[in-house]
Amino acid sequence: EDIDDEAFIKASWALDAEWKPNRYGEDNPVATLQLGTLEQAFVVDVQSICRTNQRQNTPMGRVEMILSNALKDLFENHDIPILGFGVNHDLEKLCASFPYMPCFYHFNNVIDLGAVSRSVYPRSPKHYMSGLQKMVAILLKKQLDKAEQCSTWHVRPLTSAQIEYAALDAAVLPRLLSIMMNEPEFLKKNARAFFMTNRHMKVSTRHTILTCFTEMPNLKGKYRVKMGSVKRVLDVVIAKQSWQLHKEAPPLPTHRELTDGDGSSSSDDAEPVRRRRIQIKLSTLPVEHKLPELIASVGMSRDACLSQLLGEELRSRLPLDFEMHYDKRSDLVVMSNSILFFVSARRSLKHNHKFSNDGKRLSFTFNPKAEEGKVLLDVLREEAFEETLAGVVDNFDATKRERKKLLLFVRPDRKSEILYLGRLQGFDEPNQVGDFLNVTFGLFDVEHILSDEYRKGVFEDVIATNQNGISGVSVDEALRLATEGTRPCVQRSLKTVSGNLGELPQPGTFLGGSKDACIRKILHQCTVMEDTEFTYNARSGVIEMENMALLFVNSIRRGGKRPRKYRNDFLDDGRKLTFNFDSAKASEFALFNQLPKPLSESSIEAKPVQTVGESKSPAKSLLLFVRPGGKGKFLFCGVCSGTQCEMGGNNRQLPIILELLDFDSIVENEATADPFQIMVSEHTMALEDFDREISEF
Questions:
Q1: Do the bridges between strand 431-433 and strand 436-443 make them parallel or antiparallel, or are there none, so unpaired?
Q2: Pairing of strands 405-411, 419-427
Q3: 356 within 8 A of 363, measured Cβ to Cβ
Q4: What gap in Å lies between CA 177 and CA 175, rounded to an integer?
Q5: What is the predicted pLDDT for the residue at 409?
Q6: Residue 107: which residues within 8 A CB-CB, separation 6 or more?
Q7: How confident is the model at residue 471, as a pLDDT?
Q8: What are 67-71's contacts with CB under 8 Å, separation 24+?
Q9: What is d(CA 410, CA 59) in angstroms, rounded to the nearest whole number?
Q10: Measured at the alpha carbon of residue 193, what is the angle toward residues 187 and 197, in degrees to the nearest 5?
Q11: Which one, of 214, 218, 120, lies nearest residue 461 by Cα?
Q12: What does the alpha-carbon distance between residue 106 and residue 626 come to, in Å, rounded to a whole number?
C-alpha cells in the first residue's frame, strides 16, 4: 500500500549481518543478524540458535522454527520496508548459511540506502556516499567506528564492543533514511511522496536452493532463471531473482533440458547446447503498450525500455527466446508506428543534442545516410508536405493520415535510468552540419510536465545538465573548431587537465593494461577533444593532473620478483598502503609537503620554506591504481587520503601511508571484494616470503 515517506520510515526495519572475516580462500557463514527500527535494535545470535552446514531438507528444531516463522512474517510482509546498505550480499549469505530455514528465501520491499542516496543527491560525486561510514559522517556528522568489523565474530561469547557495533549498524539505517527524506530541497520537490513516485526503489528478492554441498563444476546454462542468476555461496548453489515490488513475480527457476544431436538427453556434466536466438527486426514491431507516464523511469537499458513499450500481450505472441534487432549505436530507434529518440542530457561531440527555450525545444542531430536517419527524413518530408497541402486544399484533415509518433527518451547521466519526456511535434527547416542534419523539434507535453512540482524538478535538472556543456572546452566551441578543421590542442600537458571527481569509475574495477588507458577512463574522453595527445612521464609511478595525482603501484605474487626500488606494504587488511615519493622530483616533493604530518609531530628534515604572503596550493586528490602481479590490467582502488611518515634510511624516499577511502564499498561489494582481497593476500604473503629468506640468509 502506498504511504507517505514519514509513515514509510516509521514502518521500516533495518537489516545487517556479521560473520567471521573471510581470509584467503575462505567463505564463512553468518554469525549474527541485526534488526533495527527508529526506536529499537536487536542482535540475533544465529550462530548459537541455528545450525550451519545443513542441507535444505534438514528438519528445524523448536527454537529454529519459532525464529523462522517470526522472521518470515517480517521479511515477506509487503507493507514493511527492509532497509540495508549493500544489503543483497547479506541476504545471499543468510540463505546460504541456513538453507533449511524458509525465512531467508523471500524478502519483499527491500530498500538499498545506497541507491536512495544517489536519487536524493543526484549532483554529488558518484562515490559521495559509497560506504556506510561515509554516509554517517556526512549526514549525522559522526564517526562510525568500524574497528570491530573484522573481529572474531565466530567466537563466543561476543564482547560488549561487538554487540554495540552490531546493534549500531542496524539502528543507524532508519535515521539515515529519515535525514535524507527531510532534506529541505528534496522535501520541497517530492512533498513526502518519494517512495510513491519511485516505486522501482522497492525490490522483491527470492532465493531458490538448487543444490547443497555437492560438486557442480559447470553452472553455466544448466538453469533457466528469469530476472536473476545462479550463484555459489558457501558451497550452496542459489538461484537469486529480483524484481520491482509492484510487478508480477517471475517464474521459479527451471532446469534446462540438454539434448545431443540425435535428440537424446545428454549428461549433466556436458556443456549446454547454445541455441541461436531468433532475431526480429524492431522496425516490424509496433508500440502496442500504453505509453509510460511523463518523467517516469523506463529502465537502465534501451532493451528494457523497448520491452516495456512492446507490452506483455505482444511479447507473449513472439518466440520465447527472440532478440530485438536494431542499431544499438544510433540515437534513433525505428518501430513500425513510432520513432524513438534516445538523448543523453550530458552533451558530447558525438551526441550534441541541445535543449533550448527552457526545455521547450530540442535541437537534434542525425545522420541522414543511416537507415534510421532516412526513415526520420521521410517522416519529416511527409509532415512538411501535409502542411503545404493544408495551406492550399480546403478541408484537408491531416489527422486522418496515420503517421509515426516521435517519442523522446532522455538519460540524465551515465548511471541514471532512462526517462520518458513525451512526444515531439513540429520542426524547423533542417540545417546541414557537415555530413549531418540538425532539426529543432518542440516538446508536445512540456506544459503538462511543468504543471507537477516533482516532474518539474526532475525536468529542470535534465535541462541544467544539458546546458552545462563539457568541462574544459564548451561543446559549442569544440564543435566550431571541429567544423573548421582546427585541432584545439595537438599535444597537451596532463598537468593542465582537470579530472571530474564525480565521474570516477567504480572502486574495485579493472580499467586498462596501461597508464594511458587508466587516464582515458578517468577523463571519460569528454573533457578534451578526442584527438588530443597527453604528455606526461610514463615511467613515473606518480602522474599529476591539475586537481588530482594518480598513483600507480605493481603488487607482487608468491614466487615473483623481489621489489627493486620501492616497497609497498598493505596494512589493516588492505585498508592502508605504504607509498614513497621521490624527493629529487620537485612535483612529488610538493605533493609530499601538502600532506598532513603524523600526530607524533616528529621532525622531518625535508620541510619547505614558506615566505610571508605565500599561499599554499590546495592539496590534490590522490587516486590509487594497483596492477596485480605487475601484469594485466590496473585495479582502481578509489580516492585515498595520505599522511606523512618518519623518514627512512634512504633520504631520497619520502614515505607516506595511504588510506583507501572507498575500502568499505570495495569489500562490501561481492563483485569487487574477491579480486581485491586476493591481490592483498598474495602481495602480503609474497613480502613475508622475501623477509623470511633475508632473515635466514
A1: antiparallel
A2: antiparallel
A3: yes
A4: 5
A5: 93
A6: 75, 76, 82, 91, 204, 205, 206
A7: 39
A8: 67/101, 67/103, 68/101, 68/102, 68/103, 69/103, 70/103, 71/103, 71/104
A9: 52
A10: 125
A11: 120
A12: 39
Contact between residue 346 and residue 465 where contact means Cβ atoms under 8 Å apart:
yes
Crossing angle of helices 132-139/160-181, nearest 10°?
60
Q: How far apart are CA 630 and CA 682, in angstroms?
A: 12
Q: By the 8 A CB rule, do 87 and 33 touch?
A: no
Residue 591: in which H helix or E strand, if any? helix 586-594
Q: Which helix (H) or strand (E) holds 406?
A: strand 405-411
Return the CA Rg of the chain.
29
**Measured distance CA(522)–CA(511) in Å, rounded:** 9
576-582/361-366 β-pairing? unpaired
Helices (H), ranges, 486-585: 515-523
DSSP assignment of 278-298 equals EEEEGGGS---SPPPPTT-B-
Residue type, 403: R
C-alpha triplet 66, 67, 73: angle, nearest 5°: 95
At 81-113, the pLDDT tens digits run 999 998 999 999 999 999 999 999 999 999 999
The DSSP secondary structure of 219-246, one letter per residue, reads -TTTEE-TTEEEEEETTEEEEEEEEETT
Highest mean pLDDT among 178-182, 276-280, 297-301, 455-459: 178-182
Q: Are residues 228 and 239 in contact, defined by beta-carbon separation less than 8 angstroms?
A: yes
C-alpha cell of residue 393: 486544399
pLDDT over 50 (residue 598): yes
19-25-29 Cα angle (round to 5): 25
pTM above 0.85? no
- Per-residue pLDDT at 382: 81
Please check whether residue 463 is in contact with residue 412, taking contact to mean a CB–CB distance below 8 angstroms.
Answer: no
Q: Which three cell numbers stand for residue 589?
A: 616533493
CA distance 465 to 463: 5
Side-chain half-sphere of 201: how many Cα atoms within 13 Å?
23
Distance (Å, whole) CA 124 – CA 146: 24
Alpha-carbon gap, residue 465 to 475, rounded angstroms: 13
Is-contact 577 568, C-beta < 8 A? Answer: yes
CA dist., res. 18 & res. 34, Å (int): 8
